[in-house]
Design goal:
Elements (H helix, E strand, L loop, with lengths): L1 H29 L3 H14 L16 H20 L12 H27 L5 H12 L14 H16 L1 H8 L5 H7 L10 H25 L4 H12 L17 H14 L3 H8 L3 H5 L2 H23 L4 H16 L14 H13 L12 H19 L9 E4 L2 E4 L2 H28 L5 H12 L14 H15 L3 H37 L1
Antiparallel strand pairs: 1-2
């Protein structure tokens, strides 16, 4: 324990100097404009895959397709920063924090998705729409893919996993880690980071970054110990930790047939599906406190129950007990963590087992984690509320049943506002799922309801498990899935609020321009009459 503390003490000042230097430079270049900062950051992220050419020199011919969009983005960010200023934050409208937080987040993700598609398109790997689909799937940590991974160059395999690594962290978190801004709290919340695990936001971002990369390094080393090549270990560790699912093998983790590799993957998926505040408690060794958190207890119970049910159904189909438990446990973890790695062919499973996997994809992982879905904490709140409602009906009394749950910060009440907000998100999620499924069935004639529903649930939950529909899908179906992936990663409301904010700004701009034009015309008439 003392050695760990000493290492942290040594690394923290070094990391602090590096991030301070980079942050100051970027801040000066962009002059505090959040859009300039985000564009510059995304441009630098686009440049990272070029490092792979040092190890695979024959792939240097693909480097320009990363360098050109990267340098173009960095130059654009600098120009925007130099010639625009950050608008002062208004406090006279209650909507201001929500709107100001949502639109920059939506802009960052949209710009990153577009920029991420360019190397695939310019490099001749894919046409533009499939390239855009691959980028959406990467940044949103989904894992649905149209690429033939067995024939992809290493630089593109790395880029796919690196997109998922960056998407798991989030662009706003990376910006906040380096630089300060007036809107940083609104942006941080809007991107889906609910917990402040340190006294200030900058230290929170830095701590999450250190945790994320610490587990990444541990994952790479563990994979290598069990026989995976360094390149494959790097790619799979990035994807598993971000609960994403891109693999360097067509048969995913199952291609290795190695129980050690599967166990490492399970641990990384569980880490990725867990709230960063909870992970910090784990690192500090506060196991008993972690086990008292409602979200963790619900996750453990869910894993046990669903694993046993799926295993029992597989045994009834004639499979061995050991094999069934093994496949069921891995399938449960990969489904609710919304990772999408596979070791078995789900097409060979019975309908009951597939249906349970379907439910787990809906539930998703922990709030504030890299996982998608409705989130365990919301399901837990709804479950307790439903049970409480049944008890009130069965045993009516004058006593008031107080509901609560335990999170990192301690006991928290489940009040009417929390239940109402949770129900609002739940029904919005279900409505979008039904609409998306209907559109897939409309655009993909001959697809049955089960396949269409499963594929869109996988996209909306950012899971990545596929029944083969995506690979054979037409462009309209791919577009529907892309919208599902973005809505799932940004948790629906941020997308709608961001779009509303953009439309409002556009109307406001047009109104101001009309007012200026009227004043100018009025002055012209007055001058003419004189």
């Amino acid at each position: 324990m003392k050695e760990k503390k000493n290492i942290i003490k040594v690394l923290r000042p070094v990391f602090g100097r590096i991030e301070s230097a980079v942050g100051t430079t970027v801040d000066r270049i962009s002059r505090g404009n959040v859009y300039g900062k985000l564009i510059i950051l995304i441009g630098f992220l686009e440049l990272m895959p070029v490092v792979i050419t040092l190890f695979y020199p024959s792939e240097i011919r693909y480097a320009p397709w990363f360098v050109i969009p990267s340098f173009s983005a960095i130059a654009l960010g600098i120009i925007i920063g130099m010639f625009t200023k950050q608008a002062p934050e208004r406090t006279d409208e209650w909507q201001a924090p929500i709107r100001r937080g949502s639109f920059p987040v939506l802009f960052a993700w949209g710009f990153a998705i577009f920029l991420g598609s360019i190397p695939f398109f310019l490099g001749g790997i894919m046409d533009f729409l499939p390239a855009l689909f691959e980028s959406v799937s990467g940044w949103t940590t989904t894992g649905l893919s149209l690429a033939d991974v067995e024939s992809l160059p290493h630089i593109y395999l790395f880029f796919r996993s690196f997109m998922q690594y960056g998407g798991g962290l989030g662009f706003i978190l990376m910006v906040n880690m380096l630089i300060h801004g007036k809107q940083e709290i609104n942006l941080f919340n809007a991107e889906g980071h609910p917990d402040r695990i340190m006294p200030n936001l900058k230290k929170t971002s830095q701590t999450i970054f250190l945790l994320y990369n610490g587990f990444l390094l541990a994952g790479i080393i563990s994979y290598a110990i069990f026989g995976m090549s360094f390149f494959d270990a790097l790619c799979h560790a990035m994807s598993a930790l971000s609960t994403a699912g891109f693999s360097t093998r067509a048969d995913s983790i199952g291609a290795y047939g190695n129980i050690g590799i599967e166990l490492v993957t399970i641990v990384l998926m569980l880490v990725g599906a867990t709230n960063f505040a909870i992970l910090l408690l784990l690192v500090k060794g506060k196991i008993r406190r972690v086990l008292g958190i409602s979200e963790i207890r619900f996750m453990l119970a869910m894993t046990l129950v669903f694993s046993l049910l799926i295993a029992a159904s597989l045994v009834m189909d004639g499979n061995g007990v050991g094999e069934s438990l093994h496949n069921a446990f891995f399938g449960v973890i990969t489904a609710f963590s919304t990772t999408g790695y596979t070791i078995a062919n789900y097409a060979e499973w019975n309908a009951f087992a597939v249906f349970l996997i379907f439910i787990l994809m809906f539930i998703g992982g922990g709030a504030g984690s890299t996982a998608g879905g409705i989130k365990i904490v919301r399901v837990h709140v709804l479950f307790k509320s439903a049970v409480s409602g049944v008890i009130r009906r069965l045993f009516p009394s004058n006593k008031v049943i107080s509901l609560s749950y335990y999170k990192v910060q301690g006991k928290s009440p489940i009040d009417g506002d929390l239940v109402s907000e949770t129900l609002g998100f739940f029904f919005s999620y279900i409505a979008i799922f039904m609409l998306g499924t209907a559109l897939i069935l409309l655009f993909s004639p001959g697809t049955d309801v089960q396949k269409g529903a499963f594929e869109f649930a996988s996209a909306l939950g950012t899971v990545g498990i596929s029944n083969g529909l995506t690979k054979a899908a037409n462009y309209p179906t791919l577009i529907v899935e892309m919208f599902g992936m973005v809505l799932g990663r940004l948790e629906i409301f941020i997308v709608f609020v961001g779009i509303f904010s953009a439309v409002s700004r556009l109307k406001k701009f047009e109104f101001k321009r009309a007012v200026k034009k009227n004043k100018k015309d009025k002055k012209t008439k007055e001058h003419g009459s004189l």
